[in-house]
């Protein structure tokens, strides 16, 4: 089963990579430097966890691959834009991402800023110009879903809280609130966008939303543990950065042991949310395992 899952991951990553290469502007098109930097920031890197969640939820909902790959590409473009901006000196000031120099290091800060802007707008262009479902109102709702997950009530808002929390001690509810927005919002959106490309009942979508919330929080808890225990080569980004920057994390609040326990509890909650879907949710279950059981 594990080998089958790895083949599925590889196949979906290959499909997505080919789609992204075709959707991103050609590096030779004017302005060449910006387009080259956009491709640098997106291609040939990352596990593509969020797009994989789009594919898995879409498979559960009976969606076609040609629709899912557009939704997956849009989610990955939003994620890539957020990484480019988060790494900039005015944010986390990091020099390594996905095992290579960050965009502002490889190019310059102004170009990195424009890369993020351009990737974000391209994501919404894709959702607007491709048919992702048969109901126009539902497709508008999908665009709104990604917009809310990306903006001040989602990922950007979570980043703002994160920046304001440096050097402070947060309670567990405050930390969860931050990461429900900063990390969890886009993960939840990925699951729901994939599902909305197909056909599910409202009660089933609610269960998938709960799954996305649980696995989104678990993803961040595991990230916090790995930031303390893994090395830079393994992570593909600077290890120990959160501690060095005095950022509140699940590890700094709970300790390593209890943070691991929390990840396991969230993993259990996520699997429980999938319990009524049977074999159709197998890929989502495997992805939940993949997210929580990363080198831990």
- Coarse structural class: mainly alpha
Helix content: over 70%
- What is the level 1 CATH name? Mainly Alpha
Terminal residue distance:
21 Å
Strand content: under 5%
Number of structural units classed as domains = 1
The fold-level CATH name is: Farnesyl Diphosphate Synthase
Radius of gyration (CA) equals 18 Å
The coarse silhouette is globular
How many strands in all? 2
Q: What's the CATH architecture name?
A: Orthogonal Bundle
CATH superfamily, called what? Farnesyl Diphosphate Synthase
Point out poorly predicted stretches. none
Please state the average pLDDT score.
93
Description:
With 296 residues, this protein is an all-alpha fold. The protein has one domain (2-292): Orthogonal Bundle (Farnesyl Diphosphate Synthase). Helix content is 71%, strand content 1%. It contains 16 helices and 2 strands. It has helices at 2-23, 32-42, 49-60, 65-86, 103-106, 109-129, 136-150, 155-164, 172-182, 184-196, 202-229, 232-235, 241-244, 250-254, 256-273, 282-292; strands spanning 96-97, 100-101. Strands 1-2 form a two-stranded antiparallel sheet. Helix 2 (32-42) crosses helix 6 and helix 4 runs antiparallel to helix 10. The longest helix has 28 residues, at 202-229. The model has no long low-confidence stretch (mean pLDDT 93).
Short structural summary:
This protein has a single domain, classed as Orthogonal Bundle (Farnesyl Diphosphate Synthase), CATH 1.10.600. Helices cover 71% and strands 1% of the residues.
């Amino acid at each position: 089963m594990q080998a089958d899952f790895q083949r599925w991951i590889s196949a979906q990553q290959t499909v997505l990579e080919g789609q992204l290469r075709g959707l991103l502007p050609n590096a030779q098109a004017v302005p060449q430097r910006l387009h080259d930097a956009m491709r640098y920031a997106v291609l040939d890197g990352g596990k593509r966890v969020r797009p994989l969640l789009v594919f898995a939820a879409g498979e559960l909902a009976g969606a076609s691959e040609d629709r899912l790959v557009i939704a997956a590409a849009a989610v990955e473009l939003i994620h890539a834009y957020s990484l480019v901006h988060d790494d900039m000196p005015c944010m986390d000031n990091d020099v390594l991402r996905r095992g290579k120099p960050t965009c502002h290091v490889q190019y310059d800060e102004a170009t990195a800023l424009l890369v993020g802007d351009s990737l974000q707008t391209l994501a919404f262009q894709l959702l607007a110009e491709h048919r992702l479902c048969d109901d126009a109102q539902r497709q508008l709702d999908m665009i709104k879903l990604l917009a809310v997950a990306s903006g001040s009530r989602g990922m950007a808002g979570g980043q703002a809280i994160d920046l304001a929390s440096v050097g402070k001690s947060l309670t567990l509810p405050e930390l969860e609130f931050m990461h429900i927005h900063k990390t969890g919002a886009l993960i939840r959106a990925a699951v729901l966008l994939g599902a909305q490309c197909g056909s599910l009942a409202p009660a089933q979508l609610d269960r998938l939303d709960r799954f996305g919330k649980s696995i989104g929080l678990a993803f961040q808890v595991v990230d916090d543990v790995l930031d303390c225990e893994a090395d830079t080569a393994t992570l593909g980004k600077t290890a120990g950065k959160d501690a060095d920057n005095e950022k509140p994390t699940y590890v700094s609040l709970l300790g390593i042991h209890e943070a691991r326990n929390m990840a396991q509890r969230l993993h259990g909650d996520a699997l429980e949310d999938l319990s009524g879907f049977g074999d159709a949710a197998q890929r989502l279950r495997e992805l939940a395992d993949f997210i929580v059981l990363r080198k831990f």
